[in-house]
Structures are given as C-alpha cells and as structure tokens.
Amino acid sequence: MPADKPKRSFSPQGLPPRKALPPFEALRALDAVARLGGIRKAAQGLERDHAVISRHIRTIETWTGATLVERTPTGVVLTDTGRDYHARIAEAIDTIAQATLDMMKQSGSQPLQIWCMPGLAFHWLTGRLGAFEAAYPGVDIEVRPTDMSPDLMGNEADVDIRFVQQYGTPYHIDQGLRALELANLPIIGVASPGYLKARPVIERPEDLARHQLLHEEGYGPWLEWLAAHGVDGSDYCQGGTLLWQGHLTLDAARHGRGIALSNHLVAAADLAAGRLVEVGAGNPLFSGKTPAAYLFMARADRWEQPSVRRFRSWLHTAIAKEVPDA
C-alpha cells in the first residue's frame, strides 16, 4: 500500500515559501486566458487592457522560469506546460471564489442576483417589487431581464425565472439545481380590439391564415402553436418582421399591427384595461392545447438560503393571488 501523504501544516511555521506563490492577479489572468481562450478574451472578461494581461503572464513566466503561452496563427494559446499548470491551480481558484461568495451570501452583503424572462420582468415583476421590498427591507435584489439562462452552478446568478413551453417534451433541470413551478399557463393569441374589428372574423384556428402574426426571434413559436391546434402554418407563418422579445410583440399588438403570442400573466394589465383582447376566448377550439410554465430555479444547495427562500415564497404567493388557476 502507498504510504499516507504527510498532512499539510497551516501554522505560521508551515507557510508555503514566498517564491511558491506568484501574485494572485497574475494567476487570475492566466486562469482567464485558459478558460476564455486567449489574451484578448481574457482582457474583456476581466475588464482589463490586453497589455495588462500579457504583463501578468510574463510575471508568472519570469517567476517560474517556464514558458506558459505561445503565439500561433490563430492567436496566443497555452503551451503544454501552461495547460498543466492551469489544470493544477484552477480548482484552487474556484475554491477561493466559492468560499468568498458563500461568505458574502451569508453576511447579506451582496444583492440577490435574479435573471428573468424579459416579458415577465417588464410587464409584471418590476411593478410589484415594491411589495417585496416593503416585506423584506433587508434583502437587496438585482433583476436582469434576459432570454438567456445563467450558469447557476458557476454563480453567474442566484435565481433564474424561465418560461418553458411544454408541448409534450419535459423540461430538463440540470444536476445540482432545483425548480419550483410558479404558474402553468396556456399560450394565447392577443390583439387590439381595433385590429380585430377591421379584419376577418376569427372563429377557428385556421382563420389565422388571413391575419398578420407577430413574431419574436423566429417563426417557431407560432408554428408550434398552430400545430398544437391542428393547423399547418408552414405556408403562411413565414416571413415578416422579427421583433425578438415578447414585450415588443405586445407593443406592436397594442398598436394594431397584428396578433401576438402571450399568456394571462404577462398580458394581464392589457387584457384588464381593454387594450388587448384574447383571440378565441371562450372558444373550446382555442383552449388548453398549448401549456407553458414559469419555473423558479436555483442551486439545490442554496434553495433554503434566506434571501432565496424569501424571494421564492413572495413570488409564488404573489403569482398565485393573480392567477389562482395557474
């Protein structure tokens, strides 16, 4: 059997030799070059000038006497020695970052980072955050509206609120994460009363072929919605302006430009005020065929962290009050 490794001493007498520890900023620069793939990308990631990153790399090379990077036709890359060195220090850098973040979270010194679908953030969440702030004055939050999902395991955010279409394919929750369904809502078509009055009557999903459909980043959502209602939209659900985000298609619908896809939570204020009308409301041909859900996701090991738990509880309750059947 191999001999047991000697235990490391962390007493003052057991400190690593000074020469064994290059400046941490230089190590961080090397780490960024390795992870991001080059000096310029590392400079962008660390918000430093690329010359500063190059200087940090030279510092470690001088410190160790080893060549860590080399120039190639495609740019600067790590040498075999550089890759081996980074592989040995990367875990230590991750450990330092994680320990620091955990301490900051526990002390409440960092805002709760929330990534949220733009439609929900713009049309529903921001107008109700005052109630959360009043209930939990000690919890600071930072909301980022985005269609992108953060790397929760990599601490890019604390909470992710996603809108997931459920046309028969279960949504996959990554290992290490936990999810709560906030609301289950059908995807609906909405348009302004003026638009509907001026256009042909819509009695069946097939009638949408004679109408202007408003698209976000692509034609897929409308094609899927139509297919779920037994309609092949490939002949007419193509072309036209792409508006990329739901709050833009809703705004276009308010201005009478066509029919947008939405849900009862995001479109609630417009429907209540009469600015928009649900297409096919009460008609069984239009109902119940396009389920979707808002999911609250966070790391499983931080699910009960006070700030995460408080925001989750408040959000779940607030949505349930407004959409009781969701």
TrEMBL record:
Keywords in UniProt for this one? DNA-binding, Transcription, Transcription regulation
Alphabetized Pfam families for the sequence: HTH_1, LysR_substrate
* MF annotations from Gene Ontology: DNA-binding transcription factor activity; sequence-specific DNA binding
Give every HTH lysR-type domain span. 22-79
**Which residue intervals make up region (Disordered)?**
1-20
Report whether Transmembrane shows up as a keyword of the record: no
Q: Which domain of life is it from?
A: Bacteria
Which sequence ranges are marked TM in the entry?
A: none
InterPro entries linked to this entry: LysR-type_TF_proteobact-type, LysR_HTH_N, LysR_subst-bd, WH-like_DNA-bd_sf, WH_DNA-bd_sf
> Example GO biological process term?
DNA-templated transcription
The Swiss-Prot or TrEMBL record describes its family as follows:
Belongs to the LysR transcriptional regulatory family.
Quote the protein name from its UniProt record.
Answer: LysR substrate-binding domain-containing protein
